[in-house]
Every structure is written in C-alpha cells, then in structure tokens.
Amino acid sequence: MNRHGDEAFHRREKSRKKKAFIWQFILLAALLVIFGSFAFNISSNLVARNIHSGFGFLSESAGFELGESLISFSSTESYGRAFLAGLLNTIRVAAVSIITATVLGIIVGLMRLSKHPLLKFLGAAHVEFYRNIPLIVQLLLIYLLITELLPDSTEALHFGSWALLSKAGLQYAVPTDFHAAAAASAVSAILCFIFCRRTFIKTYTGLISSTLALGCALLAGGAVWFAAGIIFGWSKPELQGFAIEGGSSLSPEFLALWIGLTLFTSSAIAEIIRAGVLAVPKGQWNAALSLGMTQMETVSYVIFPQALKLAVPPLASQYMNLTKNSSLAVVVGYPDLVSIGNSTINLNGQALEVIVIIMSVYLVLNLIISVLMNKVNALVTRGAR
Amino acid sequence: MKKTLTAAGLVAASFAFAAAASAGTVLDKVKSSGVVVCGVNTAAPGFSNADSQGNWTGLDVDYCRALAAAVLGDATKVKFVPLNSPQRFSALQAGEIDVLARNTTWNLTRDASLGAVFVGTNYYDGQGFLVPKKLNVKSAKQLNGATICVQSGTSSEPSVADYFKSNNMKYKAVVFDTTEATQGAFLSGRCQVYTTDMSDLAGARTKAANPDDYIILPEVISKEPLGPAVRRGDNEWFQIARWVLNAMIEAEEKGITSANVDELRKTSTDPNVKRLTGAGDDTGKLLGLDKDWSYRIVKQVGNYGESFEKNLGPKTPLALPRGINNQWTNGGILYAPPVR
Question: Where is the Solute-binding protein family 3/N-terminal domain (chain B) (predicted)?
C-alpha cells in the first residue's frame, strides 16, 4: 500500500471522516437516550402524582397580595400579572443597585489607589469586609438593623414634613402628579446630558465632560422635579390610622436589598477598577508626568482610557452577578420574581413550569446586560482614531 | 476502539435500567431501612418543635412516633426532617419523606393537585390575627390599611386576601419564606399584624419577650383542618397512615390510655377494646402489619387525648382549649371510623 502522496491522503481522510461521523452519531444517540429517559421519568412521575402540567395556570387568579409593585395588582388578578409585577420589582432593584454599586465601587477603587494612607486603609477595609461575608448574611443583618432600630410608624423620624423614616420604610414627598413629573425630569435630564456633553467635549476630555454633563443633567432633572412640585403641589406623607398615606415610599425590604447589593458588589467593582488601573504600564505614568501633566490630567487623558479596556468585561459579569443575587430578595420579604414564583408553586404545585419561567427571565435579563456591555466594550476598545 | 465502544454501551444500558426501575412501595422501604422519615415543621411549639438537645415534641411528632410504633414496633425509630412551607410538598412528591406531619391544612387544591393525599385531621383549626395591644384594635374589621406579615406557601396567604377583599379593606402584605423570619419581622414591629392558624399564633406569642403585650383577635376567618399527608400513588401506605390516626382517636374514645392498656388487654370483655389492645381479632393483618399494631401505639405513645394534653394542654405554655378537638361523645367533632 502506498503510504505517501495524494491518493493515500484522501484515503486516510475518508476513513477519518467516517470514524468521526460514527462517534458523533453514537454521542447524539446517547444524549437523546439520557434526555429522553429524564423526560419520560418526569412525565410518568407527574402523572402518577396527578400533578397538572402546562402553562394554563398563568391566566388563573392569583389569590395573594403583593407587598409592593410598580403596576397595580390585587389578589383577583392573574398569575401572569403577578409574575410581571415581580419582574418589574427585580428590574427596579437591580437597575438602581447597578448604578449605585458602580459609583461606590469607582470611588472605593480610586481610594485604594491613592497615596494617602488613611484613604488607602478605608478602601481596603471596605473591600475586604463586604467581599468576605456571604451576601445572604449581610442582607439579613441590614434588614434586622432596619426593622429593630428604626422607630414605629407612629413615632417616625421627621425630616420637616418632607420625609418620614420608620419601620415601614422611607416615605418621601412627591409632586402630586408623580408619573408626569418623573417623566418630565427624566426627559429634561437626558436632553441636558446630551447637550452639555457636546459642549464640554470641545474643551475637556471624554471622562471629564461626561462627569460634568452628568452633574448638569442631575441638576436639570432636580430643577424640573421641584418646579413640578411647586406648580402642582406636593403629596406629603402623613400618618392616618395604621398606615402612612401620601407621598411615595421605599419599603424596608427594598432598602435592605438595595443597600446590601450595593455594598457587596461595590467591593468587587472596586477591585476591578483597581486591577484596570494597575494594569496600565508604569511607563505611561512616568511619561505623562515627565511631560508636565498633573495627576488629574494623567488619569483622565492617559490612564483611564487604557484602564477601561481591561475593566469593562469583568464589570459585565459583576452586573450579571448582581442581577442574579437580587433573587435573595425572598429572605428579606421583597416581592421579586423568585418570591412570587415560590408563592405560585405552593398554591398550584406546578414547580417545573414556574422554575422554567424564572430561569428564562433571568437568562434574558443577563443576555441584555451582556449585549449592552459588549457594545460599551466595543466603544472603549476602538483604539486610536 | 473496541474497549471504548463496549464501555460506552454498558453506560448507555445502565441508564436504560435506571429509568425502568420502579420505586417500590413505601412500606417495603420503611421496613428495610428500619426508620420512618417524617417531615415536620422547623419550629411550631405544640406541633413539632425541637428543644436545645434535639429532642422533638409535639402533636405531629407523636403521630409520627405512633406510625413508627405500628409499623416498626419501636416509637423511637423516626427520623425528623424539618421543612419550611415552600419545601414541604416538594419533599413529599420527591419521596424524600414518607409522611408529612407538619400542621398542614387539608384543602381541595392540595389533595387533588400537589401529589399528596391527606389521611385525616388531627387538629381542627382556623385562621386568625395576632396584633399588639397598643394598636387598640378590638376586631379584625378595624384592620383597613394595616401591614400584615404572612408566610409564603401557606393557606394563610390566599385566605387573608379573600377576607380583606370580601370586607372591602386593603392591606400591605410582607411575605417571608420561613416561620422564623415572619415571626421575627412581626415581633420587631415591621408589621402590625401576624396572620396564620390560631394554634400557630398561640405558639408565636410564647416567643415574644412579653406575651401579654399581644392579643389574638376574636375573628376566625377560615377553616383550617390540619392533618398528616402521604404521597399519592401508594394505597397500602395511605391505609396504614390513616388507620394509625384513627386508632389513636378511637383509643381515647374507648378510654384506653398508656397507663391502663396492659390491664385492659388482659381483663377487658368489650370486643372493641380487645381489638384495639391486640387481644381480639387481628386487624393488623389486613393492613400488612402484625396483631399488636394498635396496642403498641397506645403503649408507647398514648392515645389522642394524652398527646393533646402533653403538647397543647393547660400545663403547656400554649394552653389551647380542647374546644371542637374533643371526642364526639364529649361535645367535639373528633369521630374516628371504627377499628374493626
């Protein structure tokens, strides 16, 4: 047999492809057998226990109330609407926590990088403390502090007549037409941000102009908010009977979850920022300083753009971790998606369908975060233009 | 190549065999493992509660011990698995526990669609409200706008929603998944009201620093017949579980206690008493047990009245009245079908 040359090569390729095909076929058959036997086992057990399957339960009436929800919900509404309320609650706490965790994380990261020994120590203490204690323990501790130490709603702490802090949460005054005022401030803030950034970028770097534009946007949003309040009147929180009516409120469950998630994730984000900055070669610092740039200029013109390239992908996974960690809401009593799923499972026994719903929702949320962060990553790695 | 193929083939074949194997009956499993696995509450004083040494006591605990005494001959051969509300039915469906004795309400949804069947009622209860006295509330109808702590996965959640809806009142629900978290939030003042079965309310009150600061409102807003449950699909085990409960109740009706059971076994002439003390017809054979099954229940654990007295009676911190949980001959509604 000729072992060399084209003919031999083609012969060998043919037999190799045939073997590869056989192996893949066997693997596929084995996978089908495994999954098929699981599916068969599950369905026969469900039938034996007389447990119904299917997603029809989503249109049945829920029969339970929710502690808080962004959309109106009562016990006669459907399970589907309850899940939607839970999803909005999850998004609400996750979105707010991502923003505050990033801000706090950047501050603590920069503290750790500074030359002042006290700032460095405080930064290190923050990171080590919050990173090393399990999140569920932190959440329980914060919730315990809020519910034990704050006064009853009948003796709430006042901030003038604008806000009340008690065991029932933080109640604060809002303009009477809350949704319109919120929409107006949001729109004016966004417009101000875009306009200001365009103006500032002519004189400053991207980082500084973004920060200044953010500040202007917050001022603009706040101004519109107060204007709405002054023109249309305020809805102030007052004690009526048991409950504090009026104004808007942040429940202790939401506060505990928000604070807990922020502190825990900020320690991880601080380390990511620090890693990003430390990864920039020392030569860059030396070169920039020897050119006569100040510390501030060095950071914003030279170091930060390079540090961001390294920091953005791990930031994405921290945001996804935060979103998944928000499912611990059930231990502090916050009605998020998993908590509502729990109640549903116990009322109609369809654990499989509910868990599939919960898993798909978290998968979609995290995919959205992943796609957005990939776009941000593409932005920062654009390189020299 | 050949070796790998044969190995792969054996693995695939073993999967096929695993799928085809059946679970076997619960009675066989209990007899071969020598222990009854009983799902109980994590902390329900009077029903299932463990003390600091890990000794379990309670009405449901006594039922599990009676089951072990009847089936295995020894009331101590029980393994207690504490479960919280969301886990209890999943654990039963999956076969992790043989019986669920966890002060669980018997209702249609649970009987028909959660893969469980209830063997009977060992405590007729109702749902009520616990409020601090300083709230100055005398009736549940004054609770409009209150914040209510309720546990996830209990029948209390939908009942309180129905009650408030039918009375045109609103409330804010704060829902936790464990009893400890729910009671902790109520006792710390986060919620103004705690709602669950009346027997649980009495137990929760004992945990407060000052039990006299709390009052149980008079309204009973739902029927909560609490009873043990077994997994659907095993009729033999279901019959045994049901008749152990009935034997405990009928033993009290016939006046057989753990103190006099030996004497009655030797001297009684009443055929019903003779059957229950193992001196008459063999009813155990029909259940798959031996002749002394009911004798052992009363001798090692006691009858229903003794169990009630020991766990919920006037000498305990709960001090619940017998009320409707008394024999039908005594003004209550406990009526066990005859063990014959």
Answer: 35-264
